[in-house]
Structures are given as C-alpha cells and as structure tokens.
Amino acid sequence: MPSTQKLSLTDPVQFIKGVGPKRAELLKRLALETAEDCLHLLPSRYEDRSQVRKIAELRAGELATVTGTILDSGILRLGRRRRLFEIVIEDESGLLHAKWFKFRDAYMAERFAPGLKVIISGKMTDNKYLGTGLEIVHPDIEILQDDEESQATSGQIIPVYPSTEGLNQKSLRQIMQNVVDNYIPLVEEFIPNDILTRHKLPQRRKAFQETHRPPVDQSVRDLERFRSAGQRRLIFEEFFLLQLSLALRHLQHETVEKGVAFKTRGPLIQRFVQHLPFELTGAQKKVLGNIMDDLERDQPMNRLLHGDVGSGKTMVALIALLTAIDNGYQGALMAPTELLAEQHFLSLKPFCEKLGLSIDLASSALTNAERDRVRSDLASGNIQLVVGTHSLIQKDVQFNKLGLVVIDEQHRFGVLQREALGKKGWQPHVLVMTATPIPRSLAMTLYGDMDICQLDEMPPGRLPITTRRFYENRREEAYSLIDGEIKKGRQAYIVCPLIDESEKVDLHTATEVFEGLRRQYPTWKIGLLHGRIKNEERQDMMRAFKEGTLQVLVATTIIEVGIDVPNATTILIEHAERFGLAQLHQLRGRVGRGQHHSHCLLVAHHPITPEAKRRLDAMVKSQDGFLIAEEDLNIRGPGDFMGTRQSGLPLLRIAHLIRDAEFIAPARKEAFALVEKDPDLSNPEHALLKQALLHYVGDRGDLASIL
Ligand code: ADP
Ligand code: MG
What per-residue string of b and e applies to 186-219 under the rule 16 or more CB within 10 Å gives b? Predict the structure, then answer.
C-alpha cells in the first residue's frame, strides 16, 4: 500500500484499503480496475435511514423504514403448493410482520435467524388474514451487522451499490467509503466553469462526494431518480465527453479531409427523372436537396439517411450516384449481404441500361476470371456504378475515381472504415442509409458525427398491412389465407428462424416447412432459400420470384432486408416469438410495397415469454417504425438496442440513454461550441479536459490521432 502522498486515481484497486487480491478479482467483475473506476460505480439506490420510524406510529399505505430485532422467522404453508416466508420484527414500540411469497427457502431461514438486527423498508399494509396490525410484503431488508453499524448509519442516507456475488453490501460499502475518503480529494475539475454555471452543476469533487455520501438534507426522491445535483453533474459530464469526441470527429471531416465538389442536376439526372415511372415524394425531394447541397461542397459528405422500410431510399441513392457519374466519377453501392447486393443490382440495372451506363455486381459468386475483369474495369473506370458488399472497399480493390459510396441498411459506417478509404487516397462522399428507426437521443449519440436526414413520408397509394398473430395450432388458417392470395395472383414469403445445429428444440425449420407445403399445396410453385444455397441458385430463385414464376418463397432471415417484390402481399413468420422487434418490423417491410392490401402473419409457438408477447402485441398494434423502436427500447433497454455495444460507442457508465436523454442536447451544444473555439483543445485552460477526454475514449485510437 502506497503512502498517502503517493495516492493516485489510477491506482489499481488492490491499493485501496480493505482490498486484497481476492476482492480485487471480485471488483474486476464489476469492471473496476482503478480507484477512479470505483468512483464511477454509483449507488444503484439509497436507503433512507434518516427517517427511521417507530412501528407503533405506522399506518397502512405508508412507505416507511424501521429497524428492529428478529423475534421469529420461518416458512408457513398456505396449502399444497403455496408457501410464504415470514419474519416477525420487534422494536421498542411494537411488532411488524414481513412476508415473502417468492423466496429461496434454505437461504432465507438461515439468513434471518432470530436475534439479528435488521433495517426494513417498504409499503405498510393491513394484515388481511388475521386483522392484527400491519405487515409488509416483499420489503427491502438488510441485516445490520452490529449495534455499532446501526448506530453509525442511523440518521443517514445510505448508498446501496450494485454488488457482485462474493462481495456483500457491507464490504462493498466499506471499500467505497475508503475510496471516497482517500481519493475524492485527488479529483480535479475539467469542465470549464462557465459551462457548469450555465447548467447549474456542482464541481466534480462535490458531485462524487454527494453521490456516494449524500448529505442528510438531500432529497432521497431525487437520488432515486438520478436527479440530485451531483448525479446530474456526473451524467452531464459523461455525455459532454461523448459529444466532445463526436464534435472533434465532425470537425475533422470538415477541415482535414478535402473531397470533390460536384455539379448537381447534370444531364444524366435530367434524363433519369424523365424516365421515372412515378413522381418523387415530397420527402424524397427534400432529402435529395440536403444531399445535393452536400455534394456541391468540397468536403466529403458524411450523411445518414433514415427512412422506414419501403420509404424509397433506393431511388434517393440512385439519384445521388448518378450525380457522381455525371461528374465523371464512379459510384459504389454497398449492402450488408450478398443477397441484398444482388437485389440492388437487379433493380438498378434496367435504369442504368436505359441511361447507357455500365453497372456491375462484385459478388463472391463470380468466377476468378470474372472477378479479375470486374477488378480491372473498376481500376480503369470502365465500370461506372458498382454494387457489392463491404468487400468493395476492402483489400486490394482499386477504383479509378471513386466519388460516392452509398451504404445501405448499415447501422454505422465507422470512422475506421472512413480511414480505410482515406488511406487509399480516396475521400469520397458517403451516404449511409438505414431503416432502423431510432429515437432522437440515440441518433445524437450513435450518429453524432454525421448529418442526419429523414424520409418521413411513404410513396403514395400504400395500403396498410394487416398484422395478425396465430398460435401454431391455427397455422392452417394462415396457410389458407396465403392460398387465397395466391389464387388472386399474389405471392408470399414464409420465413423460418435460422437453424442452429446445436439446438435440439423442435423448430419448424425452413426445409421441413418447405417439404410440408409441397405435399399440402402441390399446385403452389415454391422455392426454398437459405444461407447454404449456392450463389447462382439463389440468384436464379430470386429472379424467378421477382418475375412471378415462383409464388412462394420459404426462406430464413436472409430475406430480412432490402428485398423488393411489390407483388408479394403476404409474409408468414414462423416462430415469431423468437425474433426481435426490429427484425420483425424489417421482415414485415417485405410486403405492403405495391398497390395491393398486404398481410403479416405471425405464427407463435408455446411457450411464449412475456417479453415475446409484448413484441408480438406491438407488431399487431402498430406499423409505425418509430413507435416500434420505442417499444423495443422499453422492452430491451438501451444497451442491447441495436447492439450499441458493438457500434463503437464508448460505454456509458453513469448516464443512461433513455433515462437521461434530456441531457444529451445541452451537452452536445456545449461540446460543439467548445470545439468550434478550440478545435484541437490546445488552449491551456482545456489541458485537463483534453486529458479526461483521452482517458474517456481509452484505447480507441481514432481520436488520439486527432488530438
Ligand atoms: P426502402 O426505403 O425500404 O429501401 P425501396 O427503395 O426499396 O424502399 O422502395 C420501395 C418501393 O417503393 C420500390 O418498389 C420503389 O420502386 C417504390 N418507390 C420508391 N419511390 C417511389 C415513389 N416516389 N413513388 C412510388 N413508388 C416509389
Ligand atoms: Mg432498401
């Protein structure tokens, strides 16, 4: 253990008083490596021991905390299967019964032995059975180790930390006490004072102090809602650092990278628009306006286009790509899967042929000779528009003059990928398109370094999709509905979950469904599509489905994104309970693309979890991507939503994207304003801020190279 003078916030947790090697391991499970990390472990809730009451003075309906001694404890049988665990507690004024209907027996009885002192809080209710006084059901309860502790903590607001197995609350609290006592004095302020004043936020040291050791007059309600002054400061701080990193990246696009300024509305565009079979929607015109403004500047466009499934993003992409070609540059359209790349290729090809443009597909299905030809045509500029997967910008692919990259259905086009482009000497304009509806708070963090625009209007004439839920025993009804549609000349998708070989569950797999349907409906022309089908076969099958020679496509989720066959009016999703909400919404987006009424049939299999039920209910209730996304966030929580963890977003340790969404915009405004004044944080007043930022972004090297 180092002497006091040598303490540093970067001390490994073993240096903290009371932490040996074993506890250090346990702390690491909470992702706590250093003393500073520990400061960021905020209490998940608080116990208000400042208001300990006497049992005799409590009334039914009150939320209250009492301390007392356990007189008796044990399990009571209420019938053959129902049991409850009960504790009787006594203080100097009376008795209180505490009850649990859900409990782990052995553990409870041992833990709450008579004679122990406890502190217990919850809602008081009248004892229904006996009519004798008050009881408290499923209370918060904690054993007070000794009189000393109960003395020491009474009259205080006690932090309760998120604990980990093997480390009880008392030990954790003791460790944190030591951290608070020894390390908070080392904490330095790094947010400029004028910002703190504007937002009425306390200094950093005070914020940690008051969050870990709330003063008695602190409102416990505010603490529980994460809205005490100290907590607000720490939440703001985290968003501020995050937005600062995004502001720096945004600025880097603007200043460091020089791109090509295009002339817009050139001859190709004029001809193309004349040939369009429909009028562009108002929303398409609006976003094209944004995009054209970007393309006219010599800074590379860095824009996200968000539009719900079916809103017509592909047309927007094509017009942008034609602008690049009008200017003598090449365009690339990248899709996340081979299948989607092929579909894009097939739908863009007729337009390009009409315009006399050379378009090609870079696919892994190509023979070596074909691939070599595509490569050399890309390098020579013979190919003006290329469609492919991400492999397009990787490895040894060379372009002659790459002017615009459009990335479809991709959540995030990372800084690293952009760097990869830059390293090849390319600074193309980049347009990322996504149908994943995201609430604004998330957009500002996930895509905070991009300009964002939205297609908020659907092409005209779309009829709503009727969504229904079936249980498997009523699958026949769903099938006959499909049969009816087929007889009317429509087509259908039947989607089955991916087959995981290790899974022994009795799943309706694509192959089984396919075989079953062939027997049951011998007149249907059915195709079976899954990941293991060869590229050429897949292409043939998709072509047949597009042309209508196949009526039903039984497929795994490889059809999830991008497929566009307007005559397909029904999608049946087997094991719908296994899919996530965003995925179900994407899948449903495969229908409702034409002039005919469409159906989405969700076939659920028992057992179905409450969350799954909520997902299916949300699908039946709404077709609005934003409502669905919100519900998804509610069901899953933000960490999981869109795989935020993998998106390159630094982990938020304190702030919460939903709970604290209101802090994001102010933090963003301050961060962008600061970077505008001090673009590389070289002002000596920002030295500590710069250090904090580098620490915050950690080993993600991209920002370190900017600063
Ligand atoms: P997404 O945004 O899901 O990628 P698509 O670009 O695939 O949507 O468009 C869905 C369908 O709408 C396509 O069949 C497309 O041809 C059609 N479409 C696009 N724009 C319009 C429009 N302005 N008017 C009518 N139909 C349109
Ligand atoms: Mg699309």
Answer: ebeebbbeebbeebebbbbebbbbbbbbbeeebe
Closest C-alpha residue for ligand 1 atom 27: 459
564 lines ligand 1 (CB under 6 A): yes
Q: Look at residue 419 and tell me whether its pLDDT is greater than 70.
A: no
Least confident of 152-156, 373-377, 543-547: 152-156
| Ligand 1 atom, smallest distance to 455 CA | 2
Instruction: Say what the pLDDT of residue 504 is.
Output: 46
d(CA 259, CA 255): 10
Q: For the chain, which domains are there?
A: 53-153 (2.40.50.140), 267-296+312-434 (3.40.50.300), 465-622 (3.40.50.300)
Q: Is 556 in the pocket of ligand 1 (CB under 6 A)?
A: no
Q: Of 228 and 645, which is predicted with more confidence?
A: 228
Q: 3-state DSSP: the chain helix, strand, coil percent, rounded to 5?
A: 45, 20, 35
Q: How many percent of the chain have pLDDT more than 90? A: 44
Q: Say what the pLDDT of residue 702 is.
A: 52
| Whether 603 contacts 472, CB under 8 Å | yes
Among 129, 81, 117, CA closest to 101: 81
Q: Which residue from 590, 75, 88, 32 is spatially nearest to 339, judged by alpha carbons?
A: 590
The token pair at 189 is: 């302020």
Range from 306-315, 319-328, 363-372, 660-669 carrying the lowest mean pLDDT = 363-372
Whole-number Å distance between alpha carbons of 288 and 607: 47
Q: In angstroms, what is the span from residue 486 Cα to ligand 1's centroid?
A: 23
Q: Point out the ligand 1 atom lying closest to the alpha carbon of residue 589.
A: 3
**What does the pLDDT average to over 676-685?**
93
Q: Which of 101, 100, 136 is nearest to 119 (CA)?
A: 136
Q: Please count the other Cβ atoms lying within 10 Å of the Cβ belonging to residue 3.
A: 6
The larger pLDDT score, comparing residue 38 to residue 532, is at 38
Residues 489, 565: contact at Cβ < 8 Å?
Answer: no
Which ligand has the minimum distance to the alpha carbon of residue 408? 2
Using the predicted structure, report yes or no on whether residue 642 has a pLDDT greater than 60: no
Q: Which atom of ligand 1 is nearest to the CA of 461?
A: 25
Please give the pLDDT value at position 441: 67
Q: Quick one: which H or E segment has residue 361?
A: strand 359-362
Cα(230)–Cα(43) distance, integer angstroms: 12
On the question of pLDDT at 155 being above 80, the answer is no
Q: Which of the 8 DSSP states describes residue 464? A: P
Q: Is 288 touching ligand 1 by the criterion CB < 6 Å?
A: no
Which residues, at least 6 apart from 476, have a Cβ–Cβ distance to it below 8 Å?
none
In this predicted structure, the answer to whether residue 511 has a pLDDT above a threshold of 50 is yes
Rounded to whole angstroms, the Cα distance separating 303 from 68 reads: 62
Q: From the CB of 593, is ligand 1 less than 6 Å away? A: yes
Q: In which band, very low, low, confident or very high, does the pLDDT at 140 lie, cut at 50, 70 and 90?
A: confident
What's the 314 CA to ligand 1 centre distance in angstroms? Answer: 7
The reported pLDDT for the residue numbered 646 is 42
pLDDT digits (tens, 9 = 90+) for 243-265: 898 888 878 766 666 789 999 99
Is 459 touching ligand 1 by the criterion CB < 6 Å? Answer: yes
In testing the pocket of ligand 1, which one of 334, 564, 588 has its CB within 8 Å of the most ligand atoms? Answer: 564
The angle formed by the CA atoms of residues 190, 192 and 197, to the nearest 5 degrees, is 125
For residue 433, which amino acid is it? M
Which amino acid residue places its CA nearest to atom 12 of ligand 1? 312
How far is Cα 489 from Cα 705, in angstroms, rounded to an integer? 59
* Nearest Cα residue to 599 out of 449, 512, 492: 492
Mean pLDDT of the chain: 85
Residue 594 CB–ligand 1 contact under 6 Å: no
Would you state the structure tokens that stand for residue 104, as one six-digit string? 């782990």
